[in-house]
Write a structure and sequence with these properties.
By secondary structure, this protein is an alpha+beta fold. The chain folds into 2 domains: 5-42; 51-84, no CATH class. It contains 3 helices and 5 strands. It has helices at 7-14, 24-42, 56-61; strands spanning 5-6, 20-21, 74-75, 78-79, 82-83. It is flat. The model is unreliable at 78-84 (pLDDT under 50).
């Protein structure tokens, strides 16, 4: 085997049907992404790198905001895009 795919580690990290790319597998993934970005940039595509944390309106508009805030990633002042009350000191 080439050792480029690690299904066991992917399942541990993210659940079923996920995998981790190792060595040449990771390099191949990056090369394919770069090639496709270059190809589409030549055709007028404008590449953007957007924030990972977004406002509630963006999540709702994209249909990504879960109905139960307990399953979302939270920060001390934000729960699924909703501002949480400030902590008392």
């Amino acid at each position: 085997m080439l050792g480029i795919l690690d299904f066991e580690r992917g399942v541990k990290l993210s659940g079923s049907r996920f995998y981790v790319l190792n060595g040449l597998g990771a390099r191949l993934q990056r090369a394919l992404i770069a090639w496709m970005l270059d190809l589409h940039r030549e055709q007028g595509y404008v590449e953007r790198y957007t924030p990972f944390v977004v406002k509630r309106e963006c999540m709702v508009g994209a249909g990504s905001c879960p109905s139960l805030p307990t399953i979302s990633i939270t920060t001390p002042r934000m729960i699924c895009g909703w501002s949480a009350p400030p902590r008392s000191r």
